[in-house]
Amino acid sequence: MFYRESGDFKTSYAADQQTFPIRFDRIVIALVLVFAFAVVPFFINDYWEKSILLPFLVWSLAALGLNILTGYCGQVSLGTGGFMAVGAYACYKLTTGFPDLNIIFVILLSGGITALVGIVFGLPSLRIKGFYLAVATLASQFFLVWLFNKVPWFYNYSASGQISMPERTLFGTAVTGSAATPWATYLFSLLFVVVFAFIARNLTRGRLGRSWMAIRDMDIAAEIIGVPPLQAKLSAFAVSSFYIGLSGALFFGVYLGAVEPTEAFGIDKSFLVLFMIIIGGLGSIFGSFVGAAFMTLLPVLFKNIMVGGFGWPTDMVQHFIFMLVGGLIMFFLIVEPHGLAQLWRVTKEKLRLWPFPH
Amino acid sequence: MKLKSLIAASLAAAMALGAGAVSADLTFPSLSYRTGPYAPNGIPFADGYADYFTLLNERDGGIGGEKINFIECETGYNTEKGVECYESTKGQGALVYQPLSTGITYQLIPKATADDIPVHSMGYGRTSAANGKVFSHIFNYPGTYWDAASIIVKHILDQEGGDVNGKTIALVYHNSAYGKEPIRTLEELAKKHGFNLTLLAVDHPGQEQKSQWLQIRRERPDYVLMWGWGVMNQVAVQEAANTRFPMDHFIGVWWSASENDVLPAGDGANGYKAINFHGVGKGFPLYDDLQKHVVDAGKAAGDGSNLGTVLYNRGMYAAMLASEAARTAQEIHGVSNITSAQMRDGMEALKIDQARMAEIGLPNFGPDINVSCDSHGGPGQAAIMQWDAGAKTWSLITDYTGADREVVDALIMEDSAAYAAENSITPRTCG
User: Fold this and answer.
1) Class of the A22-353 domain?
2) What are the b/e assignments for A230-247, b being 16+ CB within 10 Å?
């Protein structure tokens, strides 16, 4: 039917190598982007911004980052919360240290700093693998959070150790701080997510991504055919940490505006992002988004249905949500062990064969 | 078919995600936590807060003839959920927020100020918010952490005959914004009075305190202060009992002293002290009304067993202060259906004397409340209470006393000025 390669003739290399080779994909993505950029900003309010869209965007970016490391390069990491903290504190120190620096550069630099930290903590991956690496990255989680709580320089010697984002503007519109309007923060975060999702998609299709996947599938074989493990693994750590740093900076600067390290970047955040990519689908860009949506939006959805709709007591609803979300995670992992992205992959296969499935 | 149902489900989901209704009553949201590691403390407070509003609705038909619309939202002491709760309830005309979490308070300080909704962080949150010139919408009467630190040190001074030179005071604190809050004041006081301060951080959630108490056993500080919350309190009291630390030298902040915290340690907790800014027990006429109109009518938020516990009393006290502020706002503006901006004016002009307290049914429940444009920290008075493990009751052992204003006010000025500079706020002038 509409979703197929046949009949979609490519006449140039550029057309053959484009990011989305199937016409239907391009149309749908274009429509989604037009909707997200041109329609949503007119209807967004504080609630949709702070409770639904910003958390979704921020966590999507974090899931993308971890998916590059774990899904594409096969290196299990439990340090996501710590790396997000690096992004957030880099963002804080850069904004307060250089008040005139444009917020876009602040966030990109925060990502860059996190990438460097990621490389340092990625070094053990050259020696150890699998669960042992997970434990090594777990150390980074605890060390980084402890560091930001311990050293007053990171929080500018404030009495409570909390960091708060001052107001920063882009083209005269506030994008951080309390005066920022919902559409501004939304578009700002969306811009980062779209640009970097596009880059991630292309990275994973290119030489670098293929070397990551070669390492993931069998590192010795990859080394024999000439993929340098040092470069591949460390670049995966760098790129992944860059994304996670961006998401940490957006999490602190745009979404929350004030954080304290132990609460905002605890070990539960590392697990949350890991669950996102496992449920969404390891080694899938689309899966990162679906996983982030599943883990951040489902509890809000259930809460609104049960408290707002049925009027149940809040504590019972909370316990119910724990059980429901937990049950759904198990359900999806049993029914579809490769994550929700696999469902979409299967659907696409079906569409290609439709209306004559064998 | 499967795809269709999926689309239908997602559409329904998208509708349900954005919920919310607008009502005309006086709306008091309660960002409570009845789940998670801090639930044992969150539940009694939330019950007290809810029951008082239920009482006003049942007995008086609301405040000034306006019914109260009470909305509860579960935060789990989690900042992100707190933000979600704030955003989902503010559209319903919320008059005042009391998040009962320092982390969430820090989130709400800029947001609520921009939205023109007052925040009452009663005895928690950002201490320097007591400077009403900088923090126009944030209130922390009747006292702040720095007041608490100073009053506790005053009590120690009394105990030691006015001289603590060379003594050691240890602070066991929750390693978060909340727990770190008193450190600066204690450092200043240490300089002034010449005692040594030892800082012992306990990480969230606070079940693991072996090393901290080992250090206390080794160094034998003369006094231990505690800034703890949730399960951390119980563990600390138990550890103190195990290390045979003299309990009357162990003093907690007002959040570290509920029945839940001392009961597990049994007799070992006897003599444990804490600071408090309101009365204890059920011996107030208001409780008869609560029992009659709320508990016996089956309208209590909890099972009614928390009545008279420290945190229930505090939640009820918070609700009482909020409703009195609403009443004040109604008087100032001459309308019964006030807005959040008018509520803010009411809070800033709040005055409650002992006569009014007796009228409410809480004679001598707390010190006189006196909020002004300059000072959102209220009277800044508190008393020391002590736990009697035999009778299983708290009792106030001192009068309400004030803090060392010289030290505390200077610190408040310094910190609020730093906040104003960082966020480019021009302090308003108070007439």
Assistant:
1) mainly alpha
2) eebbbbbbbbbbbbbbbb
